[in-house]
């Protein structure tokens, strides 16, 4: 009933098909215009006014266009040798490095712990700055269930995590170690770190409560006064339902506020909360599925839409989602 033509190659004139046949084209238009907007905004950014790191402490906040266009974020993009693009993954990296810089953790002799690191470039960059890091990923028997291997969010060996453009292999091997860790059961021997981090990993732990429990448990790996920085998927609608008890869960404002209240009652300090979703053009573009080349088959390729598919917000199971980052200082320092 949904084919564009009948067996004789005539237009399919059923009522249902007439209503639905242009949905893919509507999706294509939305995506094409959003991606073009992202490219144009990045290409027309004015020159940065600062060429070094800035002493700015980012709050616990949502990803916004303003952040990515800022001098502090653009500095860390250049340090990672990544182009400035309006994509939430880049924001997660630059937010993380800014938070670590502001807390004095990007310095020789510091020691960090990363959770669910996969192929991210953070450990390689830290190694280039003489910062030691232990990077972790799910045990092999767990990662296929979570679906991380198929999405390049999982790395089996230390060698695969090395980014040669950021640090030579010898220094990387000297500064970075790798082990398998279940984020729902952090081993007691992982302790004494100056900082820890995770980038969009804790939403894959099985439930919202398990994600919140992980953030709290991650503080046990730190020295007093240590810094934890975590990013996750966030449903920007503070009311109504959200996704829970699933492979990818979506946190809401109430979950973060409840966590902060609990952490502060334990003597920890959380960077001020800011739930502003932004009001600039890329803040208002909500990307929609699919995320691969399935939309209209080869048409996306013919229209040169397979590259630079950048967004800050997207639809996940019908919810408007972006990234949220939280910075916590462990009490007792």
Task: Give the tags.
333 residues; alpha/beta; Rossmann fold; 11 strands; 18% strand
Walk me through this protein's architecture.
It is built from eleven helices and eleven strands. The protein has helices spanning 15-20, 23-43, 65-69, 71-79, 88-102, 122-128, 140-146, 169-175, 208-218, 253-265, 299-302, and strands spanning 60-62, 111-115, 132-137, 176-180, 193-199, 222-235, 269-270, 273-274, 286-287, 313-316, 319-329. Strands 1, 2, 3, 4, 5, 6, 7, 8, 9, 10 and 11 form an eleven-stranded mixed sheet that branches. Strand 9, helix 11 (299-302) and strand 10 form a beta-alpha-beta unit. Residues 148-152 have low confidence and may be disordered.
Taking the sheet with the most strands, its summary is: 11 strands, mixed
Radius of gyration: 21 Å
Q: How would you classify the helix and strand content by structural class?
A: alpha/beta
Rounded mean pLDDT is 91
Distance from first to last alpha carbon: 66 Å
Q: What's the total helix number?
A: 11
Work out the strand percent: 15-25%
The 3D shape can be described as: globular
Count of beta strands:
11
How is the topology of this model organized?
Blueprint: H1 15-20, H2 23-43, E1 60-62, H3 65-69, H4 71-79, H5 88-102, E2 111-115, H6 122-128, E3 132-137, H7 140-146, H8 169-175, E4 176-180, E5 193-199, H9 208-218, E6 222-235, H10 253-265, E7 269-270, E8 273-274, E9 286-287, H11 299-302, E10 313-316, E11 319-329
Parallel strand pairs: 1-8, 2-3, 2-5, 3-4, 5-6, 9-10
Antiparallel strand pairs: 1-11, 6-11, 7-11, 10-11
Helix pairs in contact: 4-5, 6-8
């Amino acid at each position: 009933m949904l084919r564009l033509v009948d067996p004789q190659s005539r237009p399919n004139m059923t009522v249902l098909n007439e209503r639905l046949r242009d949905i893919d084209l509507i999706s294509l238009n939305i995506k094409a215009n959003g991606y073009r907007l992202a490219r144009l905004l990045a290409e027309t950014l004015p020159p940065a006014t600062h060429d070094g790191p800035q002493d700015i402490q980012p709050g616990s906040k949502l990803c916004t266009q303003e952040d990515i266009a800022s001098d502090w974020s653009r500095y860390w993009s250049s340090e990672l040798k990544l182009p400035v693009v309006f994509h939430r993954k880049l924001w997660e990296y630059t937010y993380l490095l800014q938070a670590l810089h502001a807390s004095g953790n990007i310095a020789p002799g510091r020691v960090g712990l990363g959770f669910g690191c996969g192929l991210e470039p953070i450990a390689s960059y830290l190694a280039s700055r003489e910062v030691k890091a232990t990077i972790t990923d799910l045990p092999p028997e767990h990662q296929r269930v979570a679906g991380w291997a198929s999405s390049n969010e999982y790395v089996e060996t230390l060698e695969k995590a090395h980014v040669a453009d950021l640090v030579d292999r010898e220094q990387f091997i000297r500064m970075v170690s790798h082990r398998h860790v279940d984020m729902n059961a952090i081993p007691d021997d992982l302790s004494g770190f100056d900082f820890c981090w995770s980038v969009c990993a804790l939403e894959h732990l099985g439930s919202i409560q398990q994600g919140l429990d992980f953030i709290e448990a991650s503080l046990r790996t730190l020295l007093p006064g240590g810094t934890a920085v975590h990013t996750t998927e966030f449903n920007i609608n503070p009311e109504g339902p959200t996704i829970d008890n699933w492979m990818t869960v979506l946190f809401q404002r109430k979950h973060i506020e409840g966590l902060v209240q609990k952490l502060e009652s334990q003597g920890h300090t959380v960077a001020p909360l800011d739930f502003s979703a932004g009001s600039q053009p890329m803040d208002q573009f909500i990307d929609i599925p699919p995320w691969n080349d399935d939309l209209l088959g080869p048409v996306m390729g013919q229209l040169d839409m397979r590259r630079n598919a950048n967004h800050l917000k997207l639809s996940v199971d019908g919810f408007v989602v972006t990234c949220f980052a939280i910075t916590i200082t462990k009490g007792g320092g």
